[in-house]
Amino acid sequence: MKEMISLEEARALVCGAVAPTEVETVPLLEAVGRPVAADLTSDIDVAPFAHSAMDGFALRAAEIAAAAEDAPATLRVVAEIGAGDVFDGVIGPGECVRIMTGACLPADADAVVKYEIVGVVEGDGKTGSLVSFTAPAKAGANVRPAGEEARAGEVIVRAGEVISAAGVGFLAGCGVLEVPVCRRPRVAIIATGSELVPASEVPGPGKIRNSNSYAMAACAREAGAEAHMLPIVEDTFEALRDAVAAAARDYDFVVTTGGAANGDYDFIKPVVAELGELMMTTVSMRPGKAQTFGIVNGTPVFGLPGNPAAAYVGFQMLIRPALRTMQGYTFMDHPVVRARLTADEKNRDPRRIFLRANLTRASDGTYEVTPAKNQSSGLFGPIQKTNCMAVMPDGTEPQPAGSVVDCILLDVPEEVCL
């Protein structure tokens, strides 16, 4: 095992160690935002019949082919069709039918002329009236054909495609009310540290609230997983060993925070090594060099640093892609835009650096990025108040103001292409 590996190597290692969860069938509404596990087909043509795209008059286009402003064509209205109604009669020569939006197109009609451009010569425009047309209409005008959106038996959503809110409506119209998806992974979140107290308590001398569990659980939920915050574990080898062993039996993925470095009270590495296979200990990134990963009882176990920002960046860069892999997602990278730094960044660390930053548009329409003043790895606040991570490339070269760098948009779904 290499002492320190690149971020790309680390992600390939973690994602390669997980497998999709078993497929389950869920009600349609529960599938929103999730990739489907199999192709889905429609049970009918959608729409099942040709219908009018607007309120107007259904007719044969040939009847008004010679219509003009100075020589209007006139037709007699022989019926009215509302949405949900069907006209079974015949539209004879010199006749038309008043039709509402969404109503089934009569078999004899091939076009609809919108109500607003039709003149009324006699009557009120309804059945029995005489109406006039001052321009021809093309066959198919203002008509939505049968099967415009889908055909019966046609694959309408392919395996791996993520269901959107609009997609839920599409599938409902196609008769798909249950969807096969990979089960959401159950993620155990374990915060370690004898200094921690539950967030519901006011900390006493030398103690701090356990905020990491909440943040990592939120990250897991954002990744589509089920998050389960387990009790705080004190800084002893035995306590952490027992907690990890139990979690590895009961959950699909285990995430710990704290104890990932090499201090006297850092135990996640020896715990994973004793219980299973230790596969990774450090990654060339900042914040968050200390990243532990291994397999215990067939379950992935990831030890994040205790510093909040380091834990957050590690989760986003390494754990989130693994959880998405387990759910069948095919896109793993958040969108990246290129932006000009507004201030000098000395960047004297050879590791890749992720700066909490704010992305804005300059007056010329290009992007600018301003790193937060406080880049402490011990703080969540700067992450809440920024909208991207500006990436300083590996190496010790400074990045002066005006340099163009990658900016990762963590709040934009991976499926979005910019």
Automatic annotation (TrEMBL):
Its cofactor is Mg(2+). Keywords: Magnesium, Metal-binding, Molybdenum, Molybdenum cofactor biosynthesis, Transferase. Signal peptide: none annotated. The keyword Metal-binding applies. The keyword Magnesium applies. Gene3D superfamilies: MoaB/Mog-like domain (3.40.980.10), MoeA, C-terminal, domain IV (2.40.340.10), Molybdopterin biosynthesis moea protein, domain 2 (3.90.105.10), Molybdopterin biosynthesis moea protein, domain 3 (2.170.190.11). Catalyzes the insertion of molybdate into adenylated molybdopterin with the concomitant release of AMP. This is Molybdopterin molybdenumtransferase. It comes from Adlercreutzia wanghongyangiae. The gene is glp.
